[in-house]
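Case study.
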Amino acid sequence: MGRGGERRAIALANPGLNGRPFATPTLWAAIQYLMPGENAPEHRHTQHAFRFVLEGEGVWTVVGGDPVAMRRGDFLPQAGWNWHAHHNATRAPMAWIDGLDIPLQYITEAQFFEFGRDEISEAEQTTPERSRSERLWGHPGLAPLAASARPGTPGSPLLAYRWEQTDRALADQLAIEREGYGGTVEPGHAAVRYTDPVTGQDVLPTIRVEFHRVVRGAETAPVRETGSSVYTVFDGSGTVTVGDKSWSVSRGDLFVVPSWQPFSARSQAGGSDSDSGALDLFRFSDSPVFEALKLNRTLTEGNTK
Amino acid sequence: MGRGGERRAIALANPGLNGRPFATPTLWAAIQYLMPGENAPEHRHTQHAFRFVLEGEGVWTVVGGDPVAMRRGDFLPQAGWNWHAHHNATRAPMAWIDGLDIPLQYITEAQFFEFGRDEISEAEQTTPERSRSERLWGHPGLAPLAASARPGTPGSPLLAYRWEQTDRALADQLAIEREGYGGTVEPGHAAVRYTDPVTGQDVLPTIRVEFHRVVRGAETAPVRETGSSVYTVFDGSGTVTVGDKSWSVSRGDLFVVPSWQPFSARSQAGGSDSDSGALDLFRFSDSPVFEALKLNRTLTEGNTK
Amino acid sequence: MGRGGERRAIALANPGLNGRPFATPTLWAAIQYLMPGENAPEHRHTQHAFRFVLEGEGVWTVVGGDPVAMRRGDFLPQAGWNWHAHHNATRAPMAWIDGLDIPLQYITEAQFFEFGRDEISEAEQTTPERSRSERLWGHPGLAPLAASARPGTPGSPLLAYRWEQTDRALADQLAIEREGYGGTVEPGHAAVRYTDPVTGQDVLPTIRVEFHRVVRGAETAPVRETGSSVYTVFDGSGTVTVGDKSWSVSRGDLFVVPSWQPFSARSQAGGSDSDSGALDLFRFSDSPVFEALKLNRTLTEGNTK
Amino acid sequence: MGRGGERRAIALANPGLNGRPFATPTLWAAIQYLMPGENAPEHRHTQHAFRFVLEGEGVWTVVGGDPVAMRRGDFLPQAGWNWHAHHNATRAPMAWIDGLDIPLQYITEAQFFEFGRDEISEAEQTTPERSRSERLWGHPGLAPLAASARPGTPGSPLLAYRWEQTDRALADQLAIEREGYGGTVEPGHAAVRYTDPVTGQDVLPTIRVEFHRVVRGAETAPVRETGSSVYTVFDGSGTVTVGDKSWSVSRGDLFVVPSWQPFSARSQAGGSDSDSGALDLFRFSDSPVFEALKLNRTLTEGNTK
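After joint prediction, the assembly is written out as follows.
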C-alpha cells in the first residue's frame, strides 16, 4: 500500500454532484478511522483541513512537531501547508470527521502537496495534557508577543478547541438567556463560531466551523445562505428541514445543506439520547469563500411556526 | 462636591509636560481608591479607559448593566461610550490604576461625555463569579454567533481579563522555553498582549496593554519605539534603564518611557519580593495610534550584555 | 428565440476542461457580435463581467441607465448585480470579448439572475461622448464626495477605461524607462492594471484585468502563478511559451495560461503589424480569488536568455 | 541664516490655541513665498505635507529626484519621509499654502527630520510638462504593475493633481445635476476628494484634502464633524457660518472650522469675482486621524433655509 493510502477514510459522496466524491461543490467530508498503534505518515498540503472527534480518545496529531491529543468533541483545525501526522496510542479505534476544502482547491487548481519525514520522533509520540499551541494561544484574549509564537501561514495557530470549552460556552449562553438577557441566536438556540485568535475571523481562510445547540422543543428559524454546509449530529435527535424536505436525525448522522436552500432544525433531544438534553449540531461551511469574494447573501425568514 | 468629583483619583503628572496633569503626551494614568460602601455614579465618555487592580478585591464595575468583579491582577478594559459605574461592596479600600487616552482626545478635541442614571439597580449590586461578558467572550477561540452578543462600539466586549489566566499564560511561555522551544520574546522574558477577541487586535483602539515577566537575572534588550508607555511594577524588583538613566524599581512603582527612548529592564526579583519569582511589569502605551496613522517605528538593539 | 438567446456569443471551450464550455476552471470568455440596429435586452446577474472591444465602434452598453460608448481598445467592467443592456447604433457589426466568472459562480452555486425592462428609453439610446460614470470617476485621483455617486455594489463605478489612456500610460512607462528610470516591469515590458478608483484594488472582485506591452525584440521572464489567465493579442505578433510549449501569435489570437504553468512572451511586432510597434496583450485572470483566499503563489524565474 | 530658515513662510497662528503657532490642534498652515531664482534645500521629515498653489507658476518641487511643476490651482501632496526641495525658475514670486500635520506629530512625539543634498542636480532643475509621477499614476483607474513604480512609504505616489482636472470634475458634477441626476453633495454643491490611487483612500495618512464648489445663490447644509479643518477661498465670495458666527469671505481668505462646530457656506460669487462663477473652497482637515482611531462623528443638519 502506498504511503498516501495509509489514511483510512470513508469520503461522503453527494449524489447530486455527478459522481465526484465530494460532500458539497467546495467541501470534502470523510469519516476517518485509525486503529490501535497505527500511524499516518507526515505530509503537508495547501488544502485547509480540520478534524472533529466523534468517538474515542488517545490519538494525537503532530503538527509542526507539536503533539496534540484528541478526545470526543474536540475540534482540531489544520491550516494549509503545515506538516502533520497522526498516531494512535490507545487500544481502541478512533473515529473523527475530516473536513477539507479539497473540491475548491481541486477545481481552482490551487493545490500543492509534499511528503514529510517517514517517522516522527519519540518525543512527538508522547501525549502531553496540553499542546504547546494551547499553552501559547489558549488563554482567552491573551496573545503571546513573541515573533516565534506567531503563525507563519494563514489560519489559526490554536491547534485544539476542547469540548469542555465549547460545551461550557453553549451552556453559558443558554443560562444568560434564562436570566433574561441576550446572547443566544434565538430562543433556545445557542451557537459559537470557532475563530482564529490572531484575527478574530474564521478559524480557516476557506472553511467556517460552528457548533449549534438547540434545546428540547425549540426550532430554529429557516435561514437561506449562499454557500454549502455539512452538518453532523454530535448528540441528541430532532427533525431537520432543508428546502421542502424534512427528516429525522440522531447522533452520528451527517447531512448537507446546499446553497440557498432554507434550513431549520427542531430539537427532540431528551435526557436519554443527549448528554446536554439538547440537539447538538457541528457545522462547517464554505461561507468565508463567499464573504471574501463578496458573493455572500443571507435571508432569515420569520419563524412562522 | 459635584458628581464628577466623586471619583477619588490621584493623577500622575509628568514633570516633562509643562504642568499638564498627564502621564505622557497622549495618556492619562491615575491611582484610584474606592472606600468601603462607596459608589462612583454612572457616566460614559468617548475616552477609552481601563482599570488594572493593584490591591484588594470586592469592588465591581457595572458596564452596560453587567457587574464585573475586580481582584488583584485583573485587567478590565472600558471601551469608549459604554455606560459604567463602580461600587465597593467590601470593608476595605481598593486601589487600581486608571489608564485613559484623555490627553489624546483632549488635544484633538474628540471628546464627548454624558451622565447616566443616579443609582444603579440592586441586581447590579450583586457580584457574580463571572460577568455576562466573560460567559459570552471568555472561552478561548470561541465567539458567540448572536448579534445581541456583538459589541456596538469599537473595543473589546470582554470586560475582565483575570489574573489567573495572565499568570498562567506567562508561566506557560517560560515552561515552553525551558523545554527547548520558542514562545518567549527573548530568553527569560515572557509577555502577553491583551486583545479584543472580535478582531485579535489591541484591546482598545488607542491603547495597547501588555504584561511582561522577566525571570530573575534576565535582562531585556533595549528597544526604541515611537509612542509613549507607562509601566507599573506589579511584583518583584529590578533595575530599569530609560535612555541614559537607570534606577531601581520595586512593587507598586510607576514610570514612563517617552517616545524613542531606549528601554530595558533587568530583573532582580526573588522569592521574598515576588509571587512568581520574577519582575512582573504591567505596561500600557499609545502604540495603536502610531500604527493606525502609519507613524510607528521600532528599533531593537542587540543585547550587548 | 427566447430572450436569453438574443446575445450572439461564441464561447471559448478549453479542451482540457472535460467538455464544459469554459475558458478556464473559473473564467468564461466569449467573442460577442452585435449587428447594426440590434439590441440585447436588459438583465442583471451576480456574475462579474467585462467587455473589451476588439473591432468597431458605435455600440453602447447602458448600465443603470447610463449609456456608455464602446470603441476599439476600450475596457468596460460590469460589476455583478448592475442592470445592463446593449444597443448597436452603427451600420457595422461590432466584436468584443466578454469575460465573466461564470464557472466560478456556477461551481460554487453563487449565481442569481433577473430580467429587467423589455425596452430601454430613448434617452438611453443616445451616445454621449462621456458617460456619467466617466464624468464622476474619470479624473485621476479625484473622487466625488456625494453619496449618490458611490457605487451600491462591489466593483468599479468607472464604466469605461478608454484606449487613449491605456495606450498613453504604456507609452509613458516605456519613455520613462528610456530616460533611465524605473516604471516598467522589466526591460521593454510595460504593463498596467485596471483598478477600481474607490479601493485602488482590482476592477472586479473576482477578475484581474491587465494590459501588457512588450517592445519588439524584448522577452518577458517566465512567471508561474496560481490561478488561470486568458490572453488576447490586441496588436502585434510574437511567440508565447506556456509550460514546455511555444507557438506564434498575432492580432486577434486568444490563449489560456493554466495555473502554475510558466508563461513568457517574446515580441516580434513591427511597424507593419502593430500600431504601437509592440506586442500588445490584454489579459484577465482569477488572481483576486486566490489572493482573497490566501491561496496565491508566484514564482518569477530568472530570464536566462 | 541657517539652512532650516531658508524657507520663507508665514504660519497661521490660531488665537484659540494658547500662543502655539498652529492653525488647529493638529494642523499647521502657512503661506509660503519663493522669490525668483530662490531654492529651498533638500530635506525630509515624517510630517505629511502638501502644497496648494494660490498664485503664480514656474516653481517646482523636486521629490525623490522627480521635478514637479507648480501652477495656480494645483495640489501637490508630499507624503512623509520623501526627500524634497524647491526651486523658483521664474521672474515672479510665487505663493502657495503649505499644510502639514506638524502639531499632531509634535504632540505625539512622532517626528523625525533629516537634511539631504546641498544642491539638486541640473537635470532636476528642468521643468518637464508632466512629472514622472504623473506619467506613472495620472491615468484614471490605471495602476502601473512594476514594483519600481510602487511607493515605498504611505501616502499618494501621484505628486500633482492639476487644476484642469479638479475644475473639470467639479463642472462635470454640476452638469450632471442639471441633467437631472445625482452626483453633487447637495443642490449647487459639487465636491471632490483628493485620493491616493494605490488605496482609493485619503491622499495622506493624516490629512484629508477636498475642493468644494458652491454655485451662486446656493447654501450648504450645516455639518458638524469631529476634527478641525482649514479652508481657503480659492475663488469667488460668499458668507460662511461657523458655530454662531457668520462673516463674509473672498478670494485668498483663510479660516478655521474647529471640531464639532457646525459649518455652512453661502455663495455670492459672480462673474466679476470668480472664474467659475461660484464660491471655490479648498479644504484640508485631520479627519483621517479620527477615522483611523474610530473617533469620528458627523451630524448633518437639515438645511432649514
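Observations recorded in class. The two ends of chain A are 54 Å apart (CA to CA). Confidence is low (pLDDT under 50) at residues 1-6 of chain A. We will return to this complex in the next lecture.
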